[in-house]
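Hey all, quick one. A colleague (J.T.) asked me to put the alpha-D-glucopyranose job into the tracker so the inputs and the structure tokens live in one place instead of scattered across chat threads. No bug as far as I know, just bookkeeping. Sequence used:
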Amino acid sequence: MDVAAEAKKLLEENRRETDGHQYTIPSAEQYPYQWLWDSCFHAIMLAQYDTEAAKAELRSLLFHQFPNGMVPHIIYWKPGILHLFDWGVEGTSSLTQPPMLAYAAWEIHRHNPDGAFLESIYPALLSYYRFLVDKRDPGDHHLIGIINPDESGEDNSPRFDTPLSARADITYNEHLALRSKLVTDNIACTFDAELCMRTHFWVKDVPFNAILVENLRALAHIASFLKHEDGEHFANLHAELIAHAMRERLFEDGVYWSAFSADHQKLTVATWAHFAPLFAGLYSKEEAAAVVYNQLMDPDTFYAPFGIRTVSMREPSYRARGYGDNFSWRGPVWMAPHWFIYHGLLRYGYKKEATAIRDKSFALLEHAGFRECFDPETGEGSGARGFTWGALVLDMNGE
Ligand code: GLC
């Protein structure tokens, strides 16, 4: 199978247009709307060979930005469509997702410099990152909080079991009910983090904050290119402050752990979150070597025959199968973590290890097709079919 050709074909099949807004859906059968970090990934893939489509992807994403700067994690586009939860707003969700927007915008620009495009989306980008920094850090700790596991993009990851009071063997539907209740609770406290965090879910998640650091740096590049000194200063300053705070409050025993509640209690569940900081260069060279060789490459924890487990095999919550039994983010391999880890490894010069992840990613797609997630032990696919994330391999080409 020509994986790259199949990837491009899928991106085209999953492309939609509503009222002149062009976007790509994650999967026709299961996710027929627009998702935030998915669209950023789609833009990164499209930037490789169709920058106009990549730009359209980000423009449509920003069209439904809230007045306070938040970019919602789902845009339904068509009215009357079935929603997973009642989000308390019309036409979109009321949550956000890992903030990959600036990285995607800079990636488009890197492939095809276009100052006018960057200028056109810059105010929206800036107000989104200002929203995160201003509204999601009411205690001024320089760590950004998420108000629902869905905001991490890893909906039922066991990282969140303690703050959700979820059992290690919780079923997918039980988990969904907990998250649904959280949405209702947050509607009641009007999504005001300062208010909601006192009694509801409030997690300083490692991948979210690491991704934010790297995106603030991308925003700084954009602002510098456009000669917006204030924006450049804002982005560089907060990238540094967040990186520093992560080190102070989330780093222990050589790895980063997410934390919850106002007093930053660590959530010591071993997940791929240990590797997300590689993407943002948050480990020293020596620390990275230990993380790569003792954790990532350890077959008894993360390094599986068919990819990197999203949860260590040693965790009681670890489940190899995805949606068939609905365990999705409790162990199975997903392409987005593979992509983050691949780029993190390259950043530290681990070319051989990065190539191995790339090869495993291609092998999975050849073996199981473009599925939502994969059994790390057998390579069997599960969840949605025709899932666009598989096309991230287009951006796993050694750069
Ligand atoms: C699932 C994933 C989430 C993704 C969405 C759409 O809910 O957990 O990360 O954004 O599907 O693909």
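Adding what we noticed when we looked at it: The chain has 14 helices and 13 strands. The longest strand covers residues 15-18.
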